[in-house]
Design a protein that fits this description.
This protein is α/β, with parallel strands linked by helices. The protein has a domain of about 170 residues: NAD(P)-binding Rossmann-like Domain (Rossmann fold). It contains eleven helices and twelve strands. The chain binds NADP nicotinamide-adenine-dinucleotide phosphate (NAP). NADP nicotinamide-adenine-dinucleotide phosphate binds next to helix 1, strand 5 and strand 7.
Length: about 300
């Protein structure tokens, strides 16, 4: 686990949204292991059962329900927030705004004073960044709150985004996307994001609004990521194919994404290729995290 410095009092509690997901689950588990009181949020009691058994208070509800969120945030010393989404949603930005507004209303109504919000590299841009524009809007909403210490974690692309590549490799013998083969992209293991959030929740070392980038162990191109995947899968010649943006969007629609969200991802690929979607801090020891893509793939593949 990440370094922790337990400073919470016995009666203090932390609320975690998306508690069954990539980042939230690890945050809940590690806080519980460290003896913290945690409220874990999700839409299904069944999916939250293991966390409840581990000692979390669970609250079941929808993330667009501001009254539910307010009740779940009330009494918390800090909340961890994110904007979950369904890839098939017809209007992505509208769905994200609904959840984002519910979160902000709930923070206000509950009186919670510390918020950690996951955002993304590229969220400095209002447009031209595809789905990341929703996080730009959420950052603005959260920044407008008064009396709240807000920590925005702008993460790079999750390693987990490449998990569907296993299916593509099996079906088509290649990895394809709209990003250029050798364009450097900050990519990160979701567990490293969770660990950064946990460290912040323990140390409470931010005041007012602070933005921190989390850029992973190193920048990685899709070409290099494909070579690493190929090596672990015993396919050293696995090709990476850069698709034209419309073909990339079509591939996502075939995989179950709405046309709206597929178009936004194509826009994001263009923004990355044009170097508009990029780190503002530049890589430094503070935003470089531990897990390599090689270690991630070895764990997934089991070698
Ligand atoms: N992927 C990236 O490269 C990247 C990069 C930077 C930032 N981000 C941001 O990181 C956040 C995601 O973090 P994460 O990976 O920890 O979360 P996640 O695992 O994607 O989702 C968290 C939880 O949200 C719930 N959920 C899933 N679909 C939902 C839906 N349609 N409606 C309501 N709830 C739903 C699920 O819990 P239940 O089913 O149990 O309710 C899920 O466990 C997003 O805000 C994303 O934009 C992503």
């Amino acid at each position: 686990m990440c370094q922790t410095d337990k400073r919470y009092q016995e009666d203090e509690m932390i609320t975690v949204m998306g508690a069954t997901g990539h980042t939230g689950k690890r945050i809940v588990e590690e806080l519980l292991k460290a003896g913290e009181r945690v409220r874990a949020l999700g839409r299904s009691a069944e999916r939250l059962e293991a966390l409840e058994k581990a000692g979390a208070e669970v609250r079941v509800g929808e993330p667009h329900d501001a009254a539910y969120l307010a009740e779940a945030f009330r009494g918390a010393d800090a909340v961890y927030t994110l904007l979950p989404y369904d890839p098939s949603v017809a209007n992505y930005m509208a769905q994200q705004a609904t959840v984002g507004e519910a979160i902000v209303r709930a923070v206000r109504a509950s009186g919670v004073r510390r918020v950690v919000a996951i955002s993304s590299v590229g969220a400095d841009l209002a447009s031209g960044n595809g789905p990341i524009a929703s996080m730009h809007e959420q950052e603005l909403r959260l920044r407008a709150l008064s009396g709240v210490d807000l920590l925005i974690l702008r993460a790079g692309a999750f390693f987990e985004n490449l998990l569907p590549a296993f299916w593509m490799i099996e079906q088509h013998g290649l990895v394809a996307d709209g990003v250029g083969a050798e364009v450097p992209v900050p990519m990160i293991a979701s567990k490293d994001i969770a660990d950064a959030a946990i460290a912040a929740l323990f140390s409470r070392d931010w005041h007012g609004t602070q933005v921190r980038e989390l850029l992973g162990q190193r920048d990685l191109s899709y070409g290099e990521a494909t070579r690493i995947l190929g090596e672990h899968l015993g396919r050293p010649d696995l090709p990476y194919v850069q698709l034209p943006y419309d073909e990339m969007a079509g591939m996502l629609v075939d995989a179950g994404f709405s046309a709206n969200l597929a178009g936004l991802y194509a826009e994001l690929a263009e923004g990355i290729n044009d170097r508009r979607v990029k780190s503002l801090e530049g890589r430094n020891p503070g935003n470089t995290t531990a897990t390599s893509f090689e270690a991630f793939v070895a764990e997934v593949v089991g070698n």
